[in-house]
Design goal:
single chain, 92 residues, mainly alpha, two-stranded antiparallel sheet, globular
């Protein structure tokens, strides 16, 4: 993991929207660094999708986030959706 990196954010988002996106990025980090409860992850993902409804924009942010952090939004979200309940982790 890269220690200090900047999140890909859109400065036109409101404070609440920024908080939702940051919360989701934090859940992705948790999935890779320890473990996260599926319900909490999917709730954060739904809030993220309220801010970023476009699949293209989600993919762009996912690529940018993965470039700076090494963590894949796509892989983490797919793992959470497959698990459906309980806890999951992508740690190595």
């Amino acid at each position: 993991m890269i220690e200090n990196y900047s999140y890909p954010l859109d400065l036109s988002w409101s404070t609440e929207e920024l908080a939702s996106v940051l919360s989701f990025f934090n859940k992705v980090e948790e999935a890779y660094e320890s473990k996260v409860e599926v319900g909490d992850y999917l709730k954060a993902y739904r809030a993220f999708k309220q801010v970023v409804p476009s699949i293209g924009e989600e993919k762009r942010l996912g690529r940018e986030f993965e470039q700076v952090s090494g963590y894949s939004l796509y892989r983490a979200t797919q793992a959470a959706k497959q698990k459906e309940q309980g806890w999951f982790s992508l740690e190595k």
